[in-house]
Specification:
The protein is of the alpha+beta class. The chain has 12 helices and 17 strands. About 40% of the residues lie in helices and about 20% in strands. Strands 1-10-11-12-15-9-8-4 form an 8-stranded mixed sheet. It has a 3-stranded mixed sheet with strand order 7-13-14. Strands 2-3 form a two-stranded antiparallel ribbon. The radius of gyration is 27 Å and the shape is elongated.
Length: about 425
């Protein structure tokens, strides 16, 4: 959430920044609500003061033996006016909060201009795509040929955009997840956490999924206020909500493996085949909680940590800076890691590493005590996949496929696969 003070004092600059995203800030509506809020606040404060003064006069008049009926009537009238004023103020404040909650984060000055993913800027590449001397298969053909991936039985169980993994393919995904957790905890200094897969609307609001992305979430029927997590970013980042952290504990670096659940309501027709875009998928998530001055460096570190996974797996990839029109709602700056998929002959996203600045912290009231001022200040939060396990599985299958339909096991995964160097997809 943006700083209301900045909205009030720098509304034109905020509007210009958001326009780079293609977001049109309704300045007139904001100014009207803010003006009404100020007026009602003055009226409510005045009525409250007047009521309190008259209430004191009642005791004084009673002590002097004076008739207090007129004062009682006036206090009652002021009380009724105050109640109506407070209700009106509450409604305006709720409307203002709803408006502000729907405003995306301000963009970092270095975010490139552009309307969509075609305007993203490539920063670097690592690795060279392999040249094959046989017909390359995508992960769908590879998996279905040996029965390692079964979309038909998954559809019978749960519908479209689900998959059942069997045998070596299931084990390979598990190996990838364990490998990633071991690297991030053992080499990169993250603390592993196990978190709920169901979260409250308040937690989802804190990280920016609500109210904007309600249609992309799976809700639990009944009286409970719970939804399935779209990403571990939600429960992990909320670990610091409503807290004032000691400066000495920062930075905090968390890693978590969870399934993720997304309805993909706005993605009809996109990647409906295979495992690229599913309702349920596995991900290893990285979250940083830092002091503001360290946020820029933390984004580079987080991105490098995700890159390290792809390098150790020897998967060709590239890093792109997302343009203004493609960047996520809560992020001020994002780098995407895109892995090379031979079956598609293109680079596809496998991790998004984002700096959210104080946008999420303000919604969560996540703070730390500033060493210089001794006062609470908002932390900055960052998150990124380290990496998406399902897409890593796809990348390994396609990049390591052999002419006979088997799959070589990357060297770093062999200890997790019982020492096996080659897998039959069965």
């Amino acid at each position: 959430m943006l700083d209301p003070k900045q909205l009030r004092s720098e509304i034109d600059a905020v509007k210009a920044n958001l326009a780079r995203r293609g977001f049109e800030l309704d300045v007139a509506q904001f100014n009207d609500l803010e003006s009404t809020r100020k007026r009602l606040r003055v009226e409510v404060d005045g009525l409250r003061q007047a009521r309190n003064e008259r209430s004191k006069s009642i005791g004084q008049a009673k002590a002097k033996g004076q008739d207090i009926a007129p004062l009682l009537a006036e206090v009652g009238q002021l009380g009724d006016q105050l109640a109506k004023g407070e209700q009106a103020l509450k409604q305006v404040e709720a409307a203002l909060e709803h408006l502000v909650a729907g405003i995306p984060n301000l963009l970092h000055p270095e975010v490139p201009d552009g309307r969509d993913e075609t305007n993203n800027v490539e920063l670097r590449r690592w690795g060279t795509p392999r040249e094959f001397d046989f017909e390359v298969l995508d992960h769908i053909a590879l998996g279905e040929a040996g029965g390692g991936i079964d979309f038909d039985v998954a559809a019978q169980i749960a519908g479209s955009r689900f998959a059942v993994l069997r045998g070596n393919i299931a084990r390979l995904q598990r190996a990838l997840i364990q490998f990633m957790l071991d690297v991030h905890t053992g080499e990169h200094g993250y603390t592993e956490v196990y978190v709920p897969y169901l979260v409250s609307d308040r937690a989802l609001f804190g990280t920016g999924q609500l109210p904007k992305f309600a249609d992309d979430l799976f809700a639990i029927d009944g009286d409970v206020d719970l939804r399935l997590i779209p990403t571990a970013e939600v429960p992990v980042t909320n670990l610091v909500r409503d807290q004032i952290l000691d400066a000495e504990v920062l930075p905090l670096k968390f890693v978590a493996h969870t399934p993720c659940f997304r309805s993909e309501a706005g993605s009809y027709g996109k990647d409906t085949r295979g495992m690229i875009r599913q309702h349920q998928f596995e991900k290893v998530e990285l979250v940083h909680v830092v002091a503001p001055a360290m946020a820029a460096a933390a984004l580079e570190e987080l991105t490098a940590n995700a890159e390290a996974i792809l390098r150790q797996l020897e998967l060709p990839y590239r890093v792109v800076a997302l343009c203004a029109g493609d960047i996520g709602f809560g992020a001020c700056r994002t780098y995407d890691l895109e892995v090379w998929l031979p079956g598609q002959q293109k680079y596809r996203e496998i991790s998004s590493c984002s700096n959210c600045a104080d946008f999420q912290a303000r919604r969560m009231l996540a703070r730390y005590r500033d060493r210089d001022t001794g006062k609470p200040a908002l932390v900055h939060t960052l998150n990124g996949s380290g990496v998406a396990a399902g897409r890593a599985l796809i990348a390994v299958m396609e990049n390591y496929q052999q002419a006979d339909g088997t799959i070589k096991v990357p060297a770093v995964l062999q200890p997790y696969m019982g020492g096996r160097t080659t897998l039959e997809v069965e």
